[in-house]
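ESCALATION

Customer reports they have been waiting on this structure for their group meeting. Please prioritize. Original submission:
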Amino acid sequence: MALSEQRKEYLYDYQKTKLKRIPLDVPKEKYEQIKAAADAAGEKVNGYIKKAVDERMERDNGQQAPASEPDKE
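Update from on-call: job pushed to the front of the queue and completed.
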């Protein structure tokens, strides 16, 4: 089902104001390892990486990291 123009505009505005892209380059072999781990956990790669970052921040800072946004894929 195609998105309406109003919905497209809303999503664009949301992404522009609420999200910040973080480019991440990894070797293809490493990506395949991450993808396999995400698949095994029943997650998408994006969500798997966000969860890993949250867990690392919590461990390093000794406090709860803010919840990541759900995947929009």
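Sent to customer with the following note: The chain is about 60% helix and 0% strand.
Escalation resolved.
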